[in-house]
Design brief:
Layout lengths: L1 H8 L23 H46 L2 H17 L6 H4 L15 E6 L4 E6 L5 E5 L7
Antiparallel strand pairs: 1-2, 2-3
Helix pairs in contact: 2-3
Bound molecules: zinc ion.
Length: about 160
């Protein structure tokens, strides 16, 4: 009985033993140096192809992510406040996951402090001529986000 309990207490119940070490250097000529170099190059090429595959997949994923962000903001404009806030949250999450920037037009549609979707009854927009900025005052958290409108100088 004591042997059984000892086995149960062990995290890995099977008998473990080190495999006998087999090295290519014992088989290959020149102490296996050429073989090691070939293996190294082979692994490098494999890594390169895998990286290429990943980068291509990443680009396509980013494209889909951008589309989804736009769709979410479209939905937010049509739906209730609660759902709109949720859509903004999801869009931001997608952008973070794929390291995308939310475009300038879409950025102005939500509060940057509490992340609620801006509808006409939830925001007051006014221009500040002193700062040369458009100020979006959130009605929920009473904080202000500013977007400058300074014109570019003529050359
Ligand atoms: Zn806010």
């Amino acid at each position: 009985m004591s042997a059984v309990t000892a086995n149960r207490s062990h995290p890995f119940p099977f008998r473990t033993r080190k495999l006998s070490c087999f090295t290519y250097s014992s088989v290959l000529p020149n102490g296996g140096k050429a073989g090691k170099l070939l293996a190294f190059i082979f692994i490098q090429i494999n890594f390169y192809s895998i990286n290429l595959q990943f980068s291509m997949q990443r680009d396509s994923n980013r494209k889909i992510a951008l589309e989804r962000i736009e769709i979410l903001f479209e939905l937010a404009s049509k739906s209730d406040d609660k759902f709109a806030d949720r859509y903004v949250y999801l869009a931001r999450k997608i952008a973070m996951r794929y390291t995308l920037k939310i475009s300038q037009n879409l950025k102005k549609k939500f509060c940057h402090h509490c992340y609620i979707y801006f509808k006409l009854n939830r925001v007051t927009i006014r221009t500040n001529s002193k700062n040369k900025a458009i100020e979006y005052t959130c009605s929920d958290c009473k904080k202000v986000t500013r977007y400058g409108y300074r014109q570019k100088k003529n050359k």
